[in-house]
């Protein structure tokens, strides 16, 4: 039986009208304007490409999160290009549900796994990915601005999974 938090959670395909929600979600987690603008552009790009998808999380009447996923045919891996959940709705299952949807999309594309990059300083994000079965692939020195190191998490898809 689902609890009240997840019973009303829906994962939906991105619609152009969702750009305002992406902005609000990123503002709720204190992102800088230039990153918000870049993510608005990325949402439109990924939603319009057959090798990628954007999904939105809705809880009751509010859009509370999103994920961008892109399949790379050259290595048969999918990459989570962006994942965010409104800070007021952390720990409601939206992040996990969004990643699960991204993994499902990846599986339908024929991906053999999914990976995601995050700053090494993003302890909350790192704990999240580890909790949902992602493993450290490698560390990338000075991957982000201001010489911030990045870390890649990966999860390979079980061929026998539905």
SSE layout and pairing:
Layout: H1 4-7, E1 9-13, H2 19-28, H3 33-47, E2 52-59, E3 62-72, E4 77-85, H4 94-108, E5 113-119, H5 123-131, E6 135-144, E7 148-156
Parallel strand pairs: 4-5
Antiparallel strand pairs: 1-2, 2-3, 3-4, 5-7, 6-7
Helix pairs in contact: 2-3
Textual characterization of the structure:
Helices cover 33% and strands 36% of the residues. It has 5 helices and 7 strands. The model has no long low-confidence stretch (mean pLDDT 92). It has helices at residues 4-7, 19-28, 33-47, 94-108, 123-131; strands spanning 9-13, 52-59, 62-72, 77-85, 113-119, 135-144, 148-156. The protein is globular, with a radius of gyration of 15 Å. It has a single domain, classed as Gcn5-related N-acetyltransferase (GNAT) (Aminopeptidase). A hairpin with a 4-residue loop joins strand 3 and strand 4. The protein is α+β, with helices and mostly antiparallel strands and 162 residues long.
Q: What is the gist of this entry?
A:
By secondary structure, the protein is of the alpha+beta class. It has helices at residues 4-7, 19-28, 33-47, 94-108, 123-131, and strands spanning 9-13, 52-59, 62-72, 77-85, 113-119, 135-144, 148-156. It has one domain (4-156): Aminopeptidase (3-Layer(aba) Sandwich), CATH 3.40.630.
């Amino acid at each position: 039986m689902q609890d009240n938090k997840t019973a009303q959670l829906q994962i939906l395909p991105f619609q152009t009208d969702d750009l305002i929600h992406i902005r609000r979600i990123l503002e709720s987690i204190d992102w800088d304007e230039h990153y918000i603008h870049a993510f608005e552009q990325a949402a439109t790009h990924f939603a319009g490409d057959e090798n990628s998808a954007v999904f939105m999380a809705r809880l009751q009447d509010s859009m509370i999160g999103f994920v961008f996923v892109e399949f790379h045919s050259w290595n048969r891996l999918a990459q989570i290009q962006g994942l965010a959940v409104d800070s007021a709705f952390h720990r409601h299952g939206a992040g996990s549900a969004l990643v699960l949807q991204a993994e499902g999309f990846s599986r339908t594309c024929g991906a053999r796994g999914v990976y995601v990059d995050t700053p090494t300083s993003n302890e909350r994000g790192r704990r999240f990915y580890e909790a949902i079965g992602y493993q450290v692939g490698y560390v990338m020195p000075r991957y982000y601005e201001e010489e911030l190191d990045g870390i890649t998490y990966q999860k390979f898809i079980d061929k026998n999974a539905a």
